[in-house]
Amino acid sequence: MSASTVIFYLISAFILVPAYLAVTVHKIFRAAIYLLFSLIGVASLYFYLDNNFIAAVQVVVYVGGIVVLILFSVFLTHESGKDMQQPVEKREFFSAIASVCGFFLILIQLSLHNFGPSATAIQSDSIQAIGLSLLSTTMGGYSLPFEVVSILLLAAMIGSIAIAIKAKPEDTKTEPAKSQAQ
Amino acid sequence: MNAIPLQHILLVSTGLFFIGIYGFLTRRNLITMLMSIELTLNSVNINFVAFNRYLYPTKQDGLFFVIFVISIAAAEAAVAIAIIINLYRKYKTIDAEGADTMRF
Fold first, then answer.
1. A96 exposed, middle or buried (CB, 10 Å; 0-12, 13-18, 19+)?
2. Is residue B18 part of a domain?
3. What is the per-residue pLDDT for A171?
4. Chain B residues close to A115, C-beta within 8 Å
5. Which CATH number belongs to the domain containing residue B19 in this structure?
6. Would you call A45 and B46 a contact, using CB atoms and an 8 Å cutoff?
7. Whole domain around residue B36: which residue ranges?
């Protein structure tokens, strides 16, 4: 068993154990922190597979963006330190059965399927090549999905502002009076 | 590098996927359900990267799928959290059972 193999299984444990804790722990703040560790583990798996660019994107977007967003929303909507409502035992039981059955179904498929020899050629994952084909309009270029995703991100930004905006200006005049009356 | 068989990486991503599914089914808190969805999306990304690395190392298409999945996940998380915060203002709870106005 070489060091590389040991490192792979350590990374796997570092992904799966915090992920399991993130979906079972009772305090929501701890769940968010365990999610953070699991996402860092996924990023280290990308480093292990020689995809440095994807690993950097994973760290920047998930660890620096989404988890911080989730922590903010936890602070906005929860009293810290309070336990969450416990799941119903019956639902927990059937969810566990469904997940384990699905896991073994995939496991059987994985053991039956032969993926063929893994290629040993060196991957060309330079950031320059990624950027060039993101903007290329020729065959195999990704400029159309790139633009579609940029419009989607703009729509998501405007949409989340429109949803989360507090109240219209004419409503704000009446609201303080109401709260004072209460 | 190729000492690890591809199946083992797929096994890790399968485990992560079903942990996410389990969390999505058991949790009733909207933020933790969103966290489970993020775990599920991450397991799919691991599959894309592993297949690209092992079976087609000279191409990069798997990496582009991962980039697009990550950006769509970011957009989805932003919209979902805006909806959750708005829901909290209306109902003072973020349990999935709390918002039952439209339940028949």
1. middle
2. yes
3. 55
4. 6-7, 54-55
5. 1.10.287.3510
6. yes
7. 6-91
CB of A7 within 8 Å of a chain B CB? The answer is no
Q: pTM value?
A: 0.87
| Contact in structure between B63 and A130 (CB atoms under 8 Å) | yes
What phi-psi label fits residue A111: left (phi over 0), alpha (psi between -120 and 50 degrees) or beta? alpha
Q: What is the distance between the alpha carbons of residues A53 and B61, in angstroms, rounded to a whole number?
A: 14
Q: Quick one: pLDDT at residue A182? A: 45
Give the pLDDT band (50/70/90) at residue B37.
very high
Which residues of chain B make contact with A23, given a CB cutoff of 8 A?
A: 19-20, 22-23, 26-27, 32, 35-36, 39
Mutate to test the interface with A, among B4, B33, B65, B88 (most CBs of A within 10 A): B4
Helix (H, G, I), strand (E, B) or coil at B95: strand
Q: ipTM value, please give it.
A: 0.91
Triad A12, A126, A65: Cα angle to 5°: 55
CATH no. of A1-84? 1.20.120.1200
Span A93-144, pLDDT tens digits = 999 999 999 999 999 998 888 877 766 656 555 788 888 888 888 887 889 9
Position B19 in a domain: yes
Contacts of A145 in chain B (CB under 8 A): 64, 68
